[in-house]
Specification:
globular; Rossmann fold; eight-stranded mixed beta sheet; alpha/beta; 8 strands; 36% helix
């Protein structure tokens, strides 16, 4: 029986399964991620596990760049809302820090231990907490840039309407959750049609436009590229100042390398948003 975009169930599931499409990625990249985590652990200025709520995973880290009153990039990790920790993505802090941008790493409760609606509410609480404490951290409270990768890109888009947010940087994100609901991923997400629609940024564009940079690898699965294209077109029609960055020679996971140094394409885009 056809499902999303006239695909069979098997085709739909495959169109969202990045790990199967890029076998061996975890084994190749994990040592690189561990080395970045060790470099971050060696710093003495990281404010770790700041609680933005009462639950164990409602916590974030703040990493100062060393410049007073700098902009801040808040990163939300991926893992299809059901895996990974903020510590797994230490590498993505290195580029913005080198470019003079503070970094915050946000963690959240994973499905199926929470609902998708509650998870989104957590990210909004984390964003609000961070914005209200930036001045305490010596950062500029008016220049909070929220970004994320994959599921984190979806979550970043879900705070685009918040007054505390200056700009948005979704990377390889999900913007229409109906295919997620119809796929194997919904075993953990447990969305019905109404919740999937309510939590789809594509169908709920904020009234007030703000700067947005959307990154996507040219080697992404077709569904991820379709999601980015659809969201970019919708935001542009709504009058948003949107830049789409085609990340050449990158697949779904390797796009994060563009945040690993000051010369990364995504790093440069974030630095520009923070000026």
């Amino acid at each position: 029986m056809p499902t999303w975009r006239n695909r069979t169930q098997a085709e739909l599931d495959a169109s969202l399964n990045n790990s199967a499409a890029i076998p061996g990625w975890y084994e190749r990249w994990w040592p690189i991620m561990l080395a970045a985590r060790a470099r971050l652990d060696a710093r003495g200025d990281v404010q770790r596990d700041l609680a933005y709520g009462p639950e164990p995973r409602q916590r974030l880290d703040f990493i100062p760049c060393g410049r007073p009153n700098a902009a801040t990039f808040a990163f939300i990790h991926g893992g299809y809302w059901q895996s990974r920790d903020k510590e797994d993505f230490a590498l993505v802090s290195e580029g913005p820090l080198a470019a003079g941008i503070n970094v915050a790493m946000i963690e959240y409760t994973l499905v199926p231990h929470t609902t998708m609606t509650t998870l989104v509410d957590e990210i909004r609480s984390a964003t609000r907490y961070l914005a209200h404490h930036l001045a305490d951290f010596g950062a500029d409270p008016t220049r909070l840039i929220v970004g994320g990768h994959s599921a984190g890109g979806h979550l970043a888009a879900m705070v685009a309407d918040m007054a505390e947010v200056h700009a948005i940087v979704p990377i390889s994100g999900l913007f229409d959750l109906e295919p997620i609901r119809q796929s194997y991923l919904n075993d953990a997400c447990r969305m019905d049609a109404a919740e999937a629609l309510a939590l789809s940024p594509l169908h709920h564009l904020p009234v007030t436009p703000k700067p947005m940079v959307i990154g996507v690898g040219d080697g992404e699965l077709d569904e991820l590229r379709w999601q980015t294209q659809s969201y970019a077109e919708a935001t542009k029609r709504a009058g948003w100042p949107v830049t789409v960055l085609p990340l050449t020679n990158h697949h779904h996971f390797s796009v994060l390398a563009e945040l690993a140094g000051a010369e990364g394409v995504l790093t440069k885009a974030i630095a520009q948003l923070g000026t």
